[in-house]
Amino acid sequence: MKDSHIGRRKFIQYSAAGAAIATSSGNLLGADSTPLPQPTDRTEGSVTTQADVLVVGGGAAGTIAAIQAGRAGAKTVLIERGAQLGGTTTTGGVSFPGLFDAWGKQIIAGIGWELVKNSVELDGGNLPDFSKVPTRHWQNQVRVNQFLYAILAEEKCEQAGVKINYYEFPQAIIKTAQGWQVDCAGFGTQRRVLCKQLIDCTGGAEVVGMLHLPRLRDEERQPGSMLFKLDKANSPGRDGLDMLYVHGADSTNSRTVTAANLTGRKAVLAKVRATQKRLMHLQPETGFRESYRIRGETVITVDDYTSGRVFKDAVCYAFYPVDLHTRSGVKPKPLTRGTVPTIPLSALVPKGSRNIIVAGRCVSSDRLANSGLRVQASCMAMGQAAGATAALATQQKTTPIKVPLKDIREILTKHGAIIPNV
């Protein structure tokens, strides 16, 4: 027994030698590695966080909403149940967000475009020429390095004063005199957030559902996508990934997401066996296209979308073909030349609600309109509008739908967004 144990002194010696060997071989960082910041919340397992704005969901919309709220002076907290920011762009692997342009000019800019542009520039990539109208819509999509995008997003959140909390999600939400009490759970963490405004950027309007506010969902949903690469190494920001459909994909809860991921991975495994090619890259999650949408103060219809209706309370543009995926594939229906849809503030506000706003693919819309509205650039534009509105609602001690449009448009313009001509 005695010989089978290493003494404390020898253990330290072996450990130090092992660390030195690993460092010299390049596997570990040396003395110049970044020290791990110590947590400021010292209460064992249970913390309380005060905020002006709580953003739930750190995808394309939520990341931008949080940065905008922070830059507008609101104390902002971002809750994300995954391990990184970016959502569909990063975890889903659809690292070609679009569309930022329409008919020869840029129609979506602001913080989302800043993040995309910075990602491309730091990666030494190329940006499309928006003055040229492409023959196919996807030709002006911007390829980004998904890994670089995620960490740049974190940096911009930090610079805006946004506090990010990964691996957490709301379990209960209670109205208070000042706004909301949101009880969140993560492994080893119980967090109570006391905030004035909520921004639901969960994709499926999950916070809205927890509050029993009305939501819309069709019986049939578009398939999800599992992205992967066979045979050749993936070159982030340069190459595209391969894709296969995951039919019946449902992002409603952990059980249905698990089922979609397992189904997608089985299909990829079958593809590997059938082709006898090496699997070089696999995204960790299925990318979902469709789930719940809110019933807002305004519901955007496909006629509104395809006609380019300019809503009186429009806060941003959107642009993409009507893009409904089915079991037989997808046949995008391009918009008529010159048509550029708009998104009104009232489509981001759940009907009959106070102190909550949404952004992203859960925007209030019918199914066909949503198939065009759900893409990343439009979600980023919605996120910026929601972040600005929530910050102003906090400062003005009101609710999002009552924030003066001129104030929203003024702050969005200040932060680089393009506002529809109303």
Short summary:
The protein has 422 residues and is an alpha/beta fold. It has 2 domains: 46-217 and 291-414, FAD/NAD(P)-binding domain (3-Layer(bba) Sandwich), CATH 3.50.50; 224-282, no CATH class. The chain has helices spanning 8-24, 60-71, 110-122, 146-159, 206-210, 254-275, 302-307, 367-373, 376-396, 405-414; strands at residues 46-50, 53-56, 76-80, 101-102, 105-106, 163-166, 169-175, 180-186, 189-195, 197-200, 215-216, 224-230, 242-246, 279-282, 293-294, 314-317, 325-326, 329-330, 342-344, 356-358.
Unreliable stretches, pLDDT < 50, 5 or more residues? Answer: 1-26
Mean pLDDT: 91
CATH topology of the largest domain: FAD/NAD(P)-binding domain
Can you tell me the CATH superfamily of the largest domain? FAD/NAD(P)-binding domain
Report strand %.
Answer: 15-25%
Written description of the protein model:
The structure is a single chain. The chain is α/β, with parallel strands linked by helices and 422 residues long. It contains ten helices and 20 strands. Strands 6-3-2-10-20 form a five-stranded parallel β-sheet. Strands 1-9-8-7 form a four-stranded mixed β-sheet, with no helix packed on it. A hairpin with a 2-residue loop joins β17 and β18 (329-330). α2 runs parallel beside α9. The protein is globular.
